[in-house]
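Hi all, long-time lurker, first post. I run a small reading group and we've been trying to get comfortable going from sequence to structure in the token notation. Rather than ask abstract questions, I figured I'd post a concrete chain and ask someone more experienced to write out its structure so we can walk through it together at our next meeting. Sequence below, copied exactly:
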Amino acid sequence: MPLLEPTPQALRPAGLRAPSPDRVPDRLAGGTPEPLRGELTALLGADKVLWKISDLVRYASDASPYRFVPQVVVVAEDIDDVSAVLSYAHGKGREVVFRAAGTSLNGQAQGEDILVDVRRHWAGVQVLDGGARARIRPGTTVARANAALARHGRVLGPDPASALACTIGGVVANNASGMTAGTTRNSYRTLASLTFVLPSGTVVDTADPRADEDLTHAEPRLCAGLLALKAEIEADPELTARIRAKYEIKNTNGYRLDSFLDGSTPVEILRGLMVGSEGTFGFISETVFDTVALERELCTALLFFPTLPAAAAAVPLFNRAGALAVELIDGNTLRASVSVEGVPADWAALPRETAALLVEFRAADEEGRTAYERAAADVLAGLELVAPVASVTNDFTRDARTIAGYWKARKAFVAAVGGARPAGTTLITEDFAVPPARLAEACEALLALQEEHGFDAAVAGHAAHGNLHFLLAFDASRPDDVARYAAFMDAFCRLTVERFDGSLKAEHATGRNIAPFLELEWGPKATELMWRTKQVIDPDGVLAPRIVLDRDPQAHLRGLKTIPRIEAIGDPCIECGFCEPTCPSRDLTTTPRQRIVLRREMTRQPVGSPVEEALLDAYGYDAVDTCAGDSTCALDCPVGIDTGALMRELRHRRHSAREERAAALAARHFKAVESSARLAVAAARTIGDRLGDRALARVTGLARKAVRPDLVPEWLPEIPGAAARALPRTRRVGAVAVYYPACVNRIFGGPEGHRGPSLPQALVALATRAERPVWIPDDVPGTCCATIWHSKGYAEGNAVMANRIVEAAWGWTAGGTLPLVVDASSCTLGIAREVVPYLTDDNRELHAAMNVVDSVVWAAEELLPRLTVLRRARSAVLHPTCSMRHLGDEPQLRAVAEACADEVVVPHDAGCCAFAGDRGMLHQELTASATAREAAELSGRHFDAYLSANRMCELGMERATGHGYVSVLLELERATRPGPEYLRRT
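-- Answer (accepted) --
Happy to help. Here is the structure in token form:
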């Protein structure tokens, strides 16, 4: 064991706790049992089989209120893996469930036997026919697919609110639609073709002209069964009429029986049945969508009404006026949304009865938008709106930022309301549809039913299509609360069906919560046809049993998950999964959601149980060590949960008193530490050049084993030489800003082969050239933004340096009269925001009076307008840093890059590189995993320049791509430097 290896028990949740009734039993502490583990490992390889109890627990939860622990998790890489698992399951009598994003709301992505992860290796988009179509793999998020289509003026028809996180496979499998898709732009209507694997292992590509011939040869019984069902349905006029009527409004409850009416061959029928089948008929390995036009001319309003029924009554008026989206939002949702960044704080004071409509018109051109604005004005003239708080305007707007804010609040419905629920309660999300003309009546009935059963639910939905969502919170650990919920569900389902002839699931698919009520909606004849369809396609019941069809009337009450309290930072989490696509460690160890899920299971366990001990043993590396700490999860979480901050707190808990003292000592004597680090880098680079990088890697590898991998960096060949000891000479007199070269730029030089000035020299030259001179104080050495200590959880050292830099900057900037320009984006974020909680009261006042500006922002706004670009690169690729996302500085980064290059490309898969100061040297596998997709996207072409805005991020991207990344300011200096027309970069 390494000398300074921390004890896992330091991560044990604090406080008294009672074992939860749904805790993972002790018998699973060893993970996947034999022979299952050994057989699958032999079949697929050890790297594709996740068997530890920590793996099983983190995959047991999704965005639903259910929790089922799988026996094993398989990470499938290709169709061969999927077919092998299905063949194994058939032979062994086992069950298989496919899981991608885990954002479904009714337990569709959970299984109790073999769970197959089809997200990690299944991403990819190919734009076809100039954007008219797109070939998309199932692990691709909707947002990623739309990003690729946007440059062609196209977009996918389905637009679920979870587009940032949900994947195409799940969208098709659930027939998810969203704000504007309705019944005409959903997956069923816009899917051109798909490739899928049947339970038998047969692969079908519906676009193949020979598909029916091949399927008939491979699966004659299946083909005959489908055609027999088709004939039976078509011979029953009453049933045919009923099926058609059910899909006049949004409906995803049960199987798409209209597939038998719309398809004329077995393959055509299967193409329809796969949509909305929730993984019970096969695995969708590829899709081809017909896309729709991306109409960019918008006019949007958030209109406030005195009551929910009053808002609902206005919906038909906007539908007739041509609105593409009409979203209903009740008062509970509006008030809860104040937790979402950008939402007006005074919404918290909105009356309980208040409701709003988010109305949007979209046009292809200015003329169309103007016509819609006139139509909208005519509708507004006849409405009685209210303005209960000052921020309410009730006006239509064209302002993109305002519109984005409205939609951000709307899309945060589930997570924002869930985050505001009482601690310890489980969240249920329900989704139903009624004929749009009866929406107001349905709202009144729903409110009355909630009151009758003691719920104060939040309501929102796609009002244009008669589709409402509501959220209920109850305590799943209390039998009386579960009974109250059960009574409500029974009454709600009967109300929807018997009074409104509505759909019990409009777009979230049946799932475990509505499966027992399927026959109530469809009747015995149609329901039995669904059972027979399942028998024809999956006669052995291998795929996803009990998710669509379940004869147990209490099935929706089985597996409800308790939500034990954990650390305050993570406690509001509803496990929605919105954080996962941005997480650098998502393909390596755990995601923010999974880190919280694991903490909750520890809390369910009695102290010292075998399961808790096993979880603690794995948590140090899987959760704490491999968290990049970039906190981009907080940006994508609708309620801003910063799991990175939680991991930093846990790092702090693991530190011994000796480690904390050593870190504080380093902060107090940082000038010597900085000088020593620069000398060490220079010496190491010299040794590496003479003896080879492998020799240094072996030395650091031995030190890591002896001391602790999370303390000793690993030598990487990409590590550059040392920076110059002396900073550029500048004058205080006449300076318009104070320039603060970050310690990383005072220690590390540029990439190997770089010709030209250092970053401090370049920035001073640019400032002089633009006649906006800067001053570098003489006592900059020995100071730091404190991120070194902050990221590692060293509290005392963080406080020492945070207060030192603020006090120094206060003097440098003459009491805040000059801006402090910082040349590394992570350091800008550190000084501008992250130091604040660690400051004394006096220093917090000083900090509030200072203006901390990133050097790229300063260059874009202060220097670029005063500079003359003399030469431009033909192409440049740009890596925005996660710190710039936090600061909102990405537009300025792009502006500087576009001044330097004719073409600037920001990869669609650009994300946090996870180098995170030195974490990429402590755990190089983290950076390799985090940058893999971005590097793959760039592998097909060469760029003249590779640009970013942080030296360590540049180092991480160089390691990922093999190309030397430099600061965008170095490229700007080259582009504006007087001299020969051609200036070499390398």
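A couple of things your group might point at:
The two ends are 45 Å apart (CA to CA).
The longest strand covers residues 297-305.
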